[in-house]
Give the backbone structure.
Amino acid sequence: MDIMSDMATTSTIRHDWLLREVLNLYALPFNDLLHQAQVIHRQNFNPNKIQVSSLLSIKTGGCSEDCKYCPQSAHYDTGLKASKMMDVAAVVAAAKKAKEAGAGRFCMGAAWTSPKDRDMGNVIEMVKGVKELGLETCLTLGMLTKEQTQQLKVAGLDYYNHNIDSSEEYYKEIITTRSYAERLETLENVSNAGLKTCSGGIIGMGESLEDRAKMLITLASLSPQPQSVPINMLVKVEGTPLGHVEEIDLFDFIRTIAVARIMMPQSYVRLSAGREQMSDEMQALCFHAGANSIFYGEKLLTTSNPSMNEDLKLLERLGMEIEKETSDMAANDDQSTKTTSFAMEEDDWDDEEVTNIGCCGGGCCFSHD
Ligand code: SAM
Ligand code: DTB
Ligand code: SF4
C-alpha cells in the first residue's frame, strides 16, 4: 500500500469514523501508523511539549460501584482503607505544592457513584481555592446531574473527567452497577454546561482490539471531541477481579495511542495510569505516537506513579518540556479544521532556526539546525 497517498494529512475533526477504517489503522505496519500519528500530532501541537496534571484523591475507597478494575470499589477486598472527604484547606495546600512542582492542572477524584448535593458545597470551595492559585481545575466525581454541572461551571471548573473505559459491549463485562448510557449522559451534561471534557478508557482489561476501536469511535463521535483523552493501562490491583488478567502486547497499547491521536487530532491524549509499570523507552514511543499529557506526581489516586524526578529526567533526555502556560492549550479550545502545521505557527523554538527537512511533503517535518 502507498502509505503517503492513503494517509490522513489534514486534521479535520471527524465524528463519523467507521469500525472498518479504525481497524485498518490498527492493521497498518507499526512504523506507518506511528508516522501518520506523528504527522497529525505536529499539525496541531508542539511535539516537544507536554501538559502535566497532578491528581489527588479527595475521597478514597468504599465506593458502591463494582468496576472490576478499581481498588476503591467496596465490592472487593484490596486492603484499601476508606476515608472521608478531605478538608478544603488540605486540598488547596496539596494543589499549591503541585503548582510549585510545575503542574498546570489539578485533578481531584472521589470514589463516588455521584456526588450528593450535601457534598457539593465543599467541592465548590475546593475548585475555587485551586483556581485562585492559577491552576486549571479538573474533577472526577462520578455521574453528575445538569444542575451539578452548572454549579461547577459557575464555580470556575475547567475540566470534568468521566471515562467510558471500553466499548459499550465490553463495559457490561466490567461494570454491572451502572450503564454506558448513563456515562454518556453525564458527558453530555458536562459539555452542555460549557465545561471541557476529559474522557478515555483503560487498555488491558481483557478487551479485544475491536473493543478498543469501538471505544475510540465513541470518544471521537462526541461533539466536541473530549479536549483531553486519558488512555490508562490497567494497573492490576490484588483483590480486584482483574488483579491477574493477562499481560497485553505493549505495541498494541502504543497503537491505541496513535489511533487516538489520528482520530482526535486536536485533543490532548494523556498517557495516564500504568506509567510506573512502563520503561522509559515505552513512554517515549507513546509520546512519539502522539501522547502529550501525563499525570505528574508520586501518586495517582491510590496507586503509585513515577516520581517527579524520574519524569523530569525522562523529559530532559527526550528534549521535551512541560507546557507552562494554559494559553499554550488554546490550540484545542476551538475545534476546527487545521491545515497549517503547528510548527509553522510556533515562534517558541529557543531562537534556533527551523528547517523543513521535507521528509513527507506535508510541511510538518522540521528539524533544528
Ligand atoms: N468514581 C469516579 C468515576 O468512576 O468516574 C471517579 C474516579 S475513578 C477511579 C476514575 C477512573 O480511573 C476510572 O474511570 C478508570 O478509568 C480509572 N481507573 C480506576 N482504576 C484503575 C486501574 N486499576 N487502572 C487503570 N485505570 C483505573
Ligand atoms: C484517569 O483516566 N485516570 C486517573 C484519573 N483519570 C482520575 C485515575 C487512575 C487511577 C489508577 C488507579 C488508582 O490509583 O487508584
Ligand atoms: Fe467507584 Fe469510580 Fe472506582 Fe468505579 S471507578 S469503583 S465508580 S471509584
Summary: The longest helix spans residues 117-132.
